[in-house]
Amino acid sequence: MTTIAEVRARFRDDPIRRDVDLLLADITGKPTAWVFAHGDEAVDPRIEALIQRRLAGEPLQYIRGRTEFYSREFYVDDRALIPRPETEILVETVIQQSPRGARVIDIGSGSGCISVTLALERADLRVFAFDASIAALAVTRRNRDAHRATVRLAASDVLDAASARFDVIVSNPPYIPASDVETLATEVRDHEPHMALTPGREGTEVIERIYASARGARVFLEIGYGQAEAVRRIAQSHGYRVDGIVRDLAGIERVVISSPHG
Ligand SMILES: C[S@@+](CC[C@H](N)C(=O)[O-])C[C@H]1O[C@@H](n2cnc3c(N)ncnc32)[C@H](O)[C@@H]1O
């Protein structure tokens, strides 16, 4: 029999010690405060397999099967990108700036964190979630259903499945240049879907295709570090102007707001 205190002692000086505490909380079904106060309790031996996964570099969120986004819990697994805090800035911007009753398409919905949050925060919007990955779309569906959000789903390469008119496009597209993927942390590089990370050599390939098919809708995009100028040029080449750029908490230009000229 292994006790909670024995497991915690093994990781006292380890960078994953907080993750171990959370996994102990999950497996006991108690809050971490309870874990700290009950070191003498026996722990389910299945904790070892969970810790081994974390030691092998798997993100904590995939092991726990959940993460938080915009103060709500989202199911996650390795079919979809783990929602990032920066993406809350994109969602906040769209919540504030979408016209009443707008038809909104989220391109590359992944976990559904953007589309589900928009549908819940702005019940007047008609929200669609598109993803080219059927596997990712299954995660969107699971979160949509768990939150009882009204979001219509479609498997779609960029906007190919959009038949009707739409007013707003929102996307956190894959934007990492292919050659940068090797430099990412193992948690990201070896565990998150490659298709969610990079669209190709430049990093802007999906962004270019979004503007090429945006048909006059307002476009709200999350972008990568140092991409603002390239995105501005792409937008202009497709008859769009950049109305504003929102920086993230680190001061990095993160969200591009754009609309068609004229
Ligand atoms: C960076 S992830 C964003 C996921 C989620 N929206 C979020 O913000 O956490 C990009 C998503 O775009 C999808 N994707 C990649 N290429 C695509 C394409 N050509 N058309 C539609 N979706 C695409 C990926 O499958 C992935 O789910």
- Gyration radius (Cα, Å) is 20 Å
The number of distinct structural domains comes to 2
Which structural class best describes the helix and strand composition? Answer: alpha/beta
Overall 3D form: elongated
* Largest β sheet strand count, sense and barrel closure: 7 strands, mixed
The CATH homologous superfamily of the largest domain is called Vaccinia Virus protein VP39
Bound molecules: S-adenosylmethionine
Please provide the count of β strands. Answer: 9
Q: Beta-strand percentage?
A: 15-25%
CATH class of the largest domain: Alpha Beta
Physical arrangement of strands within the biggest beta sheet: 5-4-3-6-7-9-8
CATH architectural type of the largest domain: 3-Layer(aba) Sandwich
Helix content: 25-40%
* pLDDT averaged residue by residue: 97
Q: Report the span from N to C terminus.
A: 72 Å
What is the tally of helical segments?
Answer: 12
The helix-strand sequence is: HHHHHEEHEHEHEEHHHEHEE
Oligomeric composition of the shown chains: single chain
